[in-house]
Amino acid sequence: MSNVTNSDIHTHDLLPKVFKESLSQIAIARLAKLTSDRETWLLPPLVDLCARLREPGQQQHGTLASEGQAARANGFLHVVIPPDTNPILENGSLLKGLRERALEDGGIYLHILGALTAGLEGERPSNIAGLKKGGCIAVSNARQPFENDLVLLRTLEYAATFGMKVFFYPDEPSLSKDGVAHEGYIASYHGLQGIPWIAETVALSTQLLMVEETGIAAHFSQLSCKSSVELMRWAKGKNLPVTCDVAMHQLYLTDDNLEGFNAQAYVLPPLRSNTDQQALRRGLTDGTIDAICSHHEPLNATAKKAPFAESTPGISNLDTFMALACQLVRDEVLTLEQLVDKICLNPAEIAGIEADYARIGGAVLVDPNIDWQVTADTMLSNGKNTPFFNRHLQGRVVETFFD
User: Fold this and answer.
1) Pairing relation of β-strands 46-48 and 76-81?
2) Given a cut of 50, is residue 1 above it in pLDDT?
């Protein structure tokens, strides 16, 4: 079963054999009957290493039903969520119900990061044994700080005894403080409190040294600057057990997009300089950066209406993700095969869900050249907060084959 599509059409078949074998007869028959003179891509399901679906606790912005269905329609069958919900995800016995509702209401497989410290307060370890028993794939303190480096060290040592991977979102709060934009000309011109790039790299440096000391497996999410890529390159050169990802919007937007106090481009970590963006793209090409996440953060209509610094950070990214992914291939940042690694296969491996990923299977059909406009009607997410609003993009998921 080497090919499930009609060989007479322009379909690039990137579906691994194990996924072909899991397709239903209905899906196989549908794929065999595809007739089109347009280019299409057949990919395995997408895996998102960081999305906030807003439930529990912030249902005014989105729900497991709304965001799960948006994720599924845009090709994401597996979604990882951080622990900073309300309540915080620190009780392993409650997680099964959350996963079940995500599947029943949203049609997606939810993979949960448990709280690394109790209440995410950075003072003492959480009940990591209970979280592991409850099915957490890893633990994280999200973007919340630790009381001090000794707490970080002891907490990592404790997590290591349970074989738990740790997800980091590097940020040194004493340097980022109340910042809302990349520290540079744009922030200065607009009178906005800046966040220097070193706020990320100081934290990243410390965390990498802690990884080297404890031997714990770690993933670093949403890197945003050139020096972070260089540090990850150093860490991988030392064969440390580390991986990293970048949010899709960081590959296309810079702090220039904040001009005119554009709150739609307000996100944390902030959009940085063109130099940083080019370094992120190079890191993606050369393999230093392992994956691309959506960093999906849907918001309701009022969240972005306050003055820039008082508005809520976040970009709704599920609906635009594939179009931007297609552009990476057109721009020759990635080959199609590399793209599949970055948004499908590598994220599944990083999340430690390879067995379930293959067992559940599925396929996604993409038209990389279809032109569409980003509007409230074409966005499936509850959140319409995106700097790409009203823009014409190329590329979209046109069909999914999920049981």
Assistant:
1) parallel
2) no
Q: What's at 114, amino acid-wise?
A: G
Residue-wise pLDDT tens digits, 188-197: 999 999 999 9
Question: Which sign, positive or negative, has the C-alpha torsion 368, 61, 120, 143?
Answer: positive
> By the 8 A CB rule, do 319 and 70 touch?
yes
Q: Is the Cβ–Cβ distance between 124 and 115 less than 8 Å?
A: no
Output the CA angle 5-8-12, nearest 5 degrees: 55
CA dihedral 377, 365, 73, 396 (to 10 degrees): -30
In 3D, which of 26, 54, 74, 14 has the Cα closest to residue 380?
74
pLDDT in tens, 119-163: 999 999 999 999 999 999 999 999 999 999 999 999 999 999 999
Residue 386 near residue 315 (C-beta atoms within 8 A): yes
Interatomic CA distance for residues 359 and 362, integer angstroms = 9
pLDDT at 118 over 80: yes
